[in-house]
Each structure stands twice: as structure tokens, then as C-alpha cells.
Amino acid sequence: MVVYNVKLKNGSEIQIAPLNGSINVKQIANFINSLVEERSFISRDKKITHHEQRSELKVHKKKIEEGLMEYLIALHGKNIIGQAMAERLQHRVRGNAFIRLYIAESYRQLGLGKILMYLVLNGLKRKKVVNAYIEVAEKNIPAIKFYKKLGFKKVALLPNWMEFDGNYINAIGMIMELKNHVEKAYGPYENIL
Considering the entire predicted model, what is its pTM? Predict the structure, then answer.
């Protein structure tokens, strides 16, 4: 298991590692629930219970073992501050992967999202994934700008796709072709980690 020790733009020293046994259900549930409380643009709109999180983790770990998922956790001390997941699709669309990126509010704009995306996209590239796909709430302008800067392109408008504050809002589907993503979006490797 590779663990990356990284310094963020604010000087915080963090660790990024694949999901493993040292990360417990409570830590992940607390992180997800903090995003729900913040009312961030994630798909979950209700807090997750430890039982629900345990069930989800069991599924994720099976997919990781089968080579169908990349799952990275960013830690500052014992607190989860970010996570990136990429799930490889199957059958005729097996050359594609769906990505989710979550960053704690106080760690945004510090380079963590870029680092997590770099690592997860590199993992997908090593596994010969052709395209990475992400969905973003149309109102989440900073995220859309971030993904565009990395090389994602808008490919779909998903009308009334996500419920937010009792109303349905649009989402944007974005795709990145992975063949040259590292060189185009990031430059030399040493500038990232």
C-alpha cells in the first residue's frame, strides 16, 4: 500500500492512502455527514448511519479487490478531509469509469482536489480505462471550472437531475479522455506530489 505525504498550499501536512483497514466506518460516516450538514452538492442529502456506511464499505472493498474501483482517502491527523473514488463500469462500457470527489470545506482551494484527481486518474490510466466521467450540479460553478481546468469537457446537460432544497436542479455530465491527461492537465509529476 502506497501512502503519500503531501504538503498543501496552506502548509498543512496530510496523508493520502488507498482505503484500508485502518480507516474505520465512523471516520468515513463523520466525513460524509459533515458534507451533508454543509449542504454541499453531493448526491447524499441525509446523514448516513454507521450501519449504512458499513454496508457501503463492504461493497466498495469487494469492488477494489475485483479491480473495479480506486478509492483514496486524504487524512489530516486522524480526520478524513477528502476522498476520491473511481468505479470502473462493466461489459461494453468497461473502458469507462465514474468518478466522485469530496473535499472538506476548510480544505478546498488548497490543491487537495487536484492531487486526489491526479492519483485516481493515474490509477485508472494504469488499468487501461479510456474515459473518466463525472456529474456536477450545474450550480456548482467552482467545481465545473476545476474539472474543465483538469481537461474534462461538458458532454451532457442532465435536466432536473438532482434534488436540492426541495427543488430539482440540473447537472452537467463531464468526460475526460485519459490517454494524455497527466501531461496536459498537470505538467511534470514532481509539481503535484
Answer: 0.88
Give the H or E element holding residue 161: strand 153-164
**CATH at 11:** 3.40.630.30
pLDDT score for 113? 95
Question: Per-residue confidence at 14, pLDDT binned at 50, 70, 90?
Answer: very high
Secondary element (H or E) of residue 148: helix 141-150
Q: How many CB atoms lie within 10 A of CB 181?
A: 20
Residue 63: how many other CB atoms lie within 10 Å: 15
Cα–Cα–Cα angle for 177, 57, 137, rounded to 5 degrees: 45
Q: How many structural domains is the chain composed of?
A: 1
Closest CA to 185 of 104, 139, 119: 119
8 Å CB contact between 12 and 20? no
3-class state of residue 108 by DSSP: coil
By C-alpha distance, which of 74, 81, 75 is closest to 116? 74
How far apart are the C-alpha atoms of 88 and 69, rounded to whole Å?
6
